[in-house]
Predict the structure of Reverse transcriptase domain-containing protein.
Amino acid sequence: MYGEAEKLGRFPTEIDQATIVVIPKTQPPSRHCSAYRPISLLNIEIKVLSSTLASRLKEIMPTLVHPDQCGFMPTRSTRHCIRRLHLALAHRNTLSHAHLALLLLDFEKAFDTVDWSYLELVLQKNGLGPRFRGLVRLLYSKPTARVRVNGVVSDPFPIGRGTRQGCPLSPLLFALMIEPLAILLRGDPLIEGWSWPACAEDRVALYADDVLLYLSNPAKSGPRVLEILGLFAEASGLILNPAKSLLVPLHRSGDCVNWQRNIPVRRNSFKYLGMYISLLPELTWELNFTRLTRKIRSDLLHWRTLPLNLLGRIALYKMMILPRLLYLLQNFPHPIPRKWFGEMDSLVRQFIWSGARPRLALKTCQRDVYDGGLGMSNIHSYHLATQVLVINDWMGGGWTDPAYRLELQTMG
């Protein structure tokens, strides 16, 4: 079938057609399209081909994309971007330049607006062969989609731009497509980054389409950044969304934010990759753990009335609570008080026993099933495991990663 599709230059319509279902982002649902999250369902034939191409492309991605890009790259994740930011903020007073700023960029529907001719050019410039480019072109040759709402399916309509949602190849293609922007920002002499003594400069960090710029002299660097973004938008189709972008000036004297147009300005705290970042370290705990603990306490109290047995409650805790905790545990930059772990254990204990007196000690519940326990996760042990990840990066040559360059200098 794939050979025949290559000869024809496209898949049959019934194979190349996606079904889109929409999920409301807010309750109650809004009448605006932007208040719904589209989920695209692709046929298995499309996914098999795209998975094969993705597995091959993934092997050479580290040679095509700079380590500044952490999104969907092997051995890289959000924790590298967040750790890099925490270290930079903690040591910013060692910089010689008085005027510093962070610029967080957001693109309007980034994955849905990429121009396909630009994609073709990027693949060619990266040295990917004609067969590979032809197969990618096959995936993007006159695809169609239908929207399903309340069981009613719309008529098919053509898709003319953007990477396909639900396609395993799409994240890698997007990383390649945004890399030229990173190269322009990284190499422009009119843009000044954070230059550390005896260390490489911090200028740009990316997680897929989330771009963070470290700017010195933002009154000079900022306008040049916006100029480059305008040129990049003309070539790629990626348009800056000023309302969701953010400028964070880090100096107190003077005003260098008259160039930012409609980009909001925040001076104390902001959210980056799902975590609240505060310029005042004492507020970091309040913005992250205190807020999350309050939400978890509310959720557990609400779920206590659910008709679940003991194992069902443990499963609910592992699926709905533990992932939220793990993300903060691996990214929080300060020591976590042991008292907090005791507080969380108490909340979980009350939930799994429905507020009644526990019939098993929590440590017994946390043992492996084969050791007579219930396989319940130990939050403190998970926290220790997340800290070992950093040691694993060091042992694996992680000092070459931008997230650890400053750390290496600090530790001597």
Notes: The CA atoms of residues 82 and 272 lie 8 Å apart. The mean pLDDT is 90. The first helix runs from residue 2 to 8.
